[in-house]
Every structure is written in C-alpha cells, then in structure tokens.
Amino acid sequence: MTDLKQMASEFLAQKTIAIAGVSRSATGTANAIYRKLKETG
Q1: Overall pTM > 0.70
Q2: More confident residue, 31 or 41
Q3: Cα–Cα distances in angstroms (integers) from residue 27 to residues 1, 18, 23, 33, in the given order
Q4: Spatial distance between the Cα atoms of 28 and 30, rounded to a whole number of angstroms
Q5: Which residues contact 20 (CB under 8 A, 6 or more apart)?
Q6: String of DSSP letters for the chain
Q7: CB 30 within 8 A of CB 21
Q8: CA 39 to CA 6: how far, in whole Å?
Q9: What is the pLDDT of residue 22?
Q10: What is the pLDDT of residues 2-39, one digit of tens each?
Q11: Displacement of CA 11 from its chain's centroid (Å)
Q12: CA-CA distance, 40 to 32, in Å (whole number)?
C-alpha cells in the first residue's frame, strides 16, 4: 500500500473526524463533502 493510501486508511479508520471549511454556501466543495459524509455516516 502506498504511503498516501495507508495514511488515508488510518485517518478514515478513526471513530471521529472534524471537517473544517464548511460554509453557508450550499454549492461549495466542502459542503458537498460534508453532506456526503453525513448521508453515509
């Protein structure tokens, strides 16, 4: 496994993560990521 894939796996294996940069703009990239994570748990 590459270093990046290993780091991503370790990061996503955490019970809790924080998302920074979510704004009130519904069209922003950060909001799309936040909504997807919220929908899928």
Answers
A1: no
A2: 31
A3: 34, 20, 9, 11
A4: 6
A5: 30
A6: --HHHHHHHHHHTSS--------S-TTSHHHHHHHHHHHH-
A7: yes
A8: 25
A9: 76
A10: 899 999 999 889 998 877 777 777 788 888 888 888 89
A11: 10
A12: 12
